[in-house]
Design brief:
Elements lengths: L1 H30 L4 H16 L2 E11 L2 E11 L8 E9 L5 E11 L12
Antiparallel strand pairs: 1-2, 2-3, 3-4
């Protein structure tokens, strides 16, 4: 039995540096901040899961002192023709790790309509 015990202890001691390196890599991965593309993907996915609506695009994106702030356009109601579909803009807040902390609808509009205040500078 002592041979079995010695060989397993020997193998464990050889694997210890590999385990330590893997543990360090996992800690680093857990502590690193997500890159902007990861934040965008996570925000769209989380908002879609919470609202049940399709996130179509991100129209605003910035890093803040508290994490991230995005404005995401979603399809609220599909209509025919598509230009009559009902869209909405949601303000989405995420923490520094990219986890959604809050959202609110800031605007609703038909897909084919432009904002009145943006037309021709009026």
């Amino acid at each position: 039995m002592s041979n079995t015990k010695n060989s397993s202890e020997s193998q464990n001691s050889r694997n210890a540096p590999e385990r330590a390196e893997k543990d360090t890599e996992e800690r680093v991965a857990e502590n690193r901040r997500p890159n902007p593309m990861e934040v965008l993907r996570n925000a769209r996915t989380q908002l879609a899961e919470l609202t049940g609506m399709t996130a179509e695009n991100v129209s605003s994106f910035e890093q803040t002192e508290d994490g991230w702030s995005l404005e995401i356009e979603v399809l609220e109601l599909s209509r025919v023709p598509d230009t009559m579909s009902l869209m909405a803009s949601y303000q989405v807040e995420l923490d520094p790790e990219g986890q959604l902390t809050g959202y609110r609808r800031v605007r609703r509009y038909e897909r084919g309509r432009a904002d009145a205040h943006r037309q021709g500078g009026r």
